[in-house]
Amino acid sequence: MALSESVVGVLLAGGKSSRMGGGDKCLRVLGGKAILARIIDRLSPQVSDIVINANGDPARFAAFGLPVVSDSVTGYQGPLAGVHAALEWVRANRPGVEYVVTVATDTPFFPVDLVRRFLDAPGDASGFRVAQSDVGVHPVIGLWPVGLAAALRASLERGERKVTAWTKAHGAVPVFFSPVEVGGKSIDPFFNINAPEDLASAEVFLSESAS
Questions:
Q1: What is the rounded CA–CA span in Å between residue 177 and residue 205?
Q2: Which residues lie below 8 Å from residue 149, measured CB to CB, with a gap of 6+?
Q3: 149-157 and 79-93 helices, crossing angle to 10°
Q4: What value does the mean pLDDT of the chain take?
């Protein structure tokens, strides 16, 4: 099966963005375009489809022309609930797809070969993979078998929310990604924009890469 036919991309946009002052930080502008637009451009060649996981009014993402899937488990339960919603969406709408790849919507420099490297990584046959870099494991950046949907729902209904603990308990294999060069700087490939100073740093990286 071709790469683009085997994986659906899921953009996890359900965070509360408290350190950015609230709102959807993925809609903040970086280098003249929304962070979310940059992430869509980076992920699109790697997957068959992209969906956005977000709660609240989906109209705020209408300009991107992508399906918006809200959490199906009640109560804000963080990224695990977003992953579960995405797995359920794929089961219902793309029955031939085996995996979803999840990407946080505040990581504009993630690898352009992320999905290929997840699929090619050694490990058990389940295909469950999570990203790792020099700063540690990034469990919200991962390749999730669609078959995990039922187990994930059961965990959420028990109140489990810790994505790192859940991925480890269910056998996710870490895949290491080296630093990337952006604007002459070596940075973590999963550099995330959590606060205004992070957005300022990302602007510097982009401006220097264009000079």
A1: 19
A2: 84, 87, 88, 91
A3: 140
A4: 90
Residue 20 has pLDDT above 50, yes or no: no
- The domain spanning residue 44 has which CATH number? 3.90.550.10
pLDDT of 21 over the 70 cut: no
Q: How many domains does the chain have?
A: 1
Backbone phi, psi, residue 104, to 5°: -70, 145
Q: Supply the range of the domain harboring residue 73.
A: 3-210
For the chain, how big is the Rg over CA atoms in Å?
A: 16
Where would I find the H helices in the chain? 3-6, 35-43, 79-93, 114-120, 149-157, 163-169, 196-210
Helix or strand or coil: residue 7?
Answer: strand
- State residue 60's pLDDT score: 95
For 120-152, letters b (16+ CB in 10 Å) and e give eeeeeeebbbbbbbeeebbbbbbbbbbebbeeb
Instruction: Return the percent helix, strand and coil in the chain, to nearest 5.
Output: 40, 25, 35
165 pLDDT higher than 60: yes
Which pTM was predicted?
A: 0.91
Environment class of 175 (CB within 10 Å of its CB; exposed 0-12, middle 13-18, buried 19+): buried
The amino acid present at 5, given as its one-letter code, is E
Output the pLDDT for position 183. 81
More confident residue, 41 or 4: 41
Q: 129-133 and 136-145 as β-strands: parallel, antiparallel, unpaired? A: antiparallel
**CA terminus-to-terminus distance, the chain:** 40
Q: What is the mean pLDDT of residues 56-84?
A: 90
